[in-house]
Amino acid sequence: MSLVDMINSGSKVSGSPNTASLLDKKPDMMGIGMGGGQQQTGDWKKQLKMPPKDRRVKTSDVTDREGKEFEDFCLSRELLMGIFEMGWEKPSPIQEASIPMALSGRDILARAKNGTGKTGAYSIPILERVDPKIDSIQALIIVPTRELALQTSQICTDLSKHLKLKVMVTTGGTGLKDDIIRVYQKVHVIIATPGRIIDLMEKNVCKMDQCKMLVLDEADKLLSQDFNKMLDKLISFLPLKRQILLFSATFPVTVEDFMKKHSIDPYKINLMDELTLKGVTQYYAFVQERQKVHCLNTLFSKLEINQSIIFCNSTQRVELLAKKITELGYACYYIHARMNQADRNRVFHDFRKGHCRNLVCSDLFTRGIDIQAVNVVINFDFPKMSETYLHRIGRSGRFGHLGIAINLITYDDRFTLQKIENELGTEIKPIPKEIDKALYVASYQQEGAHEEEEHNGGQNGVK
């Protein structure tokens, strides 16, 4: 019986539980081998501990490049080592566009899709420009959520592991005393949420007189009413001569107004020819509210899920759905903003490590969270706003890879579905009888297995 037939008939289904591509012909930036003597160009690369090469097909969101290599940016060898050991083989389009300008010290206003390498686009030049000999805070990265702060700090720590830099993360929900102790030690780069870092500044714990680089990631969220103009207050603690790097997928009027007020002739980058990721194929299933759990059970039994994120519109529904999924026999975590911070951190860490296949969450998890193993996103509750929808489905199909987004649509959602399609200029198709595994299963996405054009469109690969 097909997926659609099973849903419509109400039949029951039981639950069940890089190697980097480098150019050896390029000149050695430093000319000195890691052992202190002269080495042939490229010898240092052979000593790196790089992850296996990712052979999955990538979409033009990350492959439509100018052909630059990370070595073309004149980065220090120690930073290049960190980049390649992360498995980052070549810069993505947003990295090609922003890294050289950021290294020059110019302000940047950058717009690019979710999951196309924005974190690397600002963290690489920030880490390159920090002077480890100066014992002070030199760069500040502001993000809207605690989970994104933890993720970003881990990326910066991994990139800088061969540099003599100290990276620190500070967010609300953790002990202020511990953060004060760490700040008084040597710190060069801080990743923070706005409330906590302002608190530390006002207490004169974080001295920002040498902090000349400010990054605002997910800037549209940071400049929303949720943060009530906290960034204006934050900037007042920074030197007048500073560099601002602002990254966002959407540019509301608040972002433009902020840059006019605080930046000087920013270099503008806009890689948003369309809003949705090319690699995410979008479907909807029309169901009654009481059918949703049964429909979700059917999806679990039919799809080849590596990891999935399931979104609900309230914290109460998150917990109720997680309980239902567990009762069906599937492993499941849940996370929402009202949870204790230690519990949130543990769930986030364990899900990233692949300890659980399914995660039920609120919109807490929509901003910037990058878990490459997620190949299925399910909107158990359909969002009301197109911006929320865009960020939710962006948890799948990260960095040009392929994934699917499935929306459970009730009668009351029908007009919202149409509105979001129109606002985003995208198409959300009825779920087919069978979903082509090449659209979301990694083993079907090896290079050379399929023509890339088949995947770039996404919707044309359904049997």
TrEMBL record:
<dbReference type="GO" id="GO:0000932">
    <property type="term" value="C:P-body"/>
</dbReference>
<dbReference type="GO" id="GO:0003724">
    <property type="term" value="F:RNA helicase activity"/>
</dbReference>
<keyword id="KW-0694">RNA-binding</keyword>
<feature type="short sequence motif" description="Q motif">
    <location>
        <begin position="68"/>
        <end position="96"/>
    </location>
</feature>
<dbReference type="GO" id="GO:0005524">
    <property type="term" value="F:ATP binding"/>
</dbReference>
<dbReference type="InterPro" id="IPR000629">
    <property type="entry name" value="RNA-helicase_DEAD-box_CS"/>
</dbReference>
<keyword id="KW-0547">Nucleotide-binding</keyword>
<feature type="domain" description="DEAD-box RNA helicase Q">
    <location>
        <begin position="68"/>
        <end position="96"/>
    </location>
</feature>
<dbReference type="GO" id="GO:0016787">
    <property type="term" value="F:hydrolase activity"/>
</dbReference>
<protein>
    <recommendedName>
        <fullName>RNA helicase</fullName>
        <ecNumber>3.6.4.13</ecNumber>
    </recommendedName>
</protein>
<dbReference type="Pfam" id="PF00271">
    <property type="entry name" value="Helicase_C"/>
</dbReference>
<dbReference type="Pfam" id="PF00270">
    <property type="entry name" value="DEAD"/>
</dbReference>
<feature type="compositionally biased region" description="Polar residues">
    <location>
        <begin position="8"/>
        <end position="20"/>
    </location>
</feature>
<dbReference type="InterPro" id="IPR014014">
    <property type="entry name" value="RNA_helicase_DEAD_Q_motif"/>
</dbReference>
<keyword id="KW-0347">Helicase</keyword>
<feature type="compositionally biased region" description="Basic and acidic residues">
    <location>
        <begin position="43"/>
        <end position="63"/>
    </location>
</feature>
<dbReference type="GO" id="GO:0033962">
    <property type="term" value="P:P-body assembly"/>
</dbReference>
<keyword id="KW-0378">Hydrolase</keyword>
<feature type="region of interest" description="Disordered">
    <location>
        <begin position="1"/>
        <end position="20"/>
    </location>
</feature>
<comment type="similarity">
    <text>Belongs to the DEAD box helicase family. DDX6/DHH1 subfamily.</text>
</comment>
<dbReference type="GO" id="GO:0017148">
    <property type="term" value="P:negative regulation of translation"/>
</dbReference>
<dbReference type="GO" id="GO:0003723">
    <property type="term" value="F:RNA binding"/>
</dbReference>
<keyword id="KW-0963">Cytoplasm</keyword>
<feature type="region of interest" description="Disordered">
    <location>
        <begin position="35"/>
        <end position="63"/>
    </location>
</feature>
<feature type="domain" description="Helicase C-terminal">
    <location>
        <begin position="279"/>
        <end position="439"/>
    </location>
</feature>
<dbReference type="InterPro" id="IPR027417">
    <property type="entry name" value="P-loop_NTPase"/>
</dbReference>
<feature type="domain" description="Helicase ATP-binding">
    <location>
        <begin position="99"/>
        <end position="269"/>
    </location>
</feature>
<keyword id="KW-0067">ATP-binding</keyword>
<dbReference type="InterPro" id="IPR001650">
    <property type="entry name" value="Helicase_C-like"/>
</dbReference>
<dbReference type="InterPro" id="IPR011545">
    <property type="entry name" value="DEAD/DEAH_box_helicase_dom"/>
</dbReference>
<dbReference type="InterPro" id="IPR014001">
    <property type="entry name" value="Helicase_ATP-bd"/>
</dbReference>
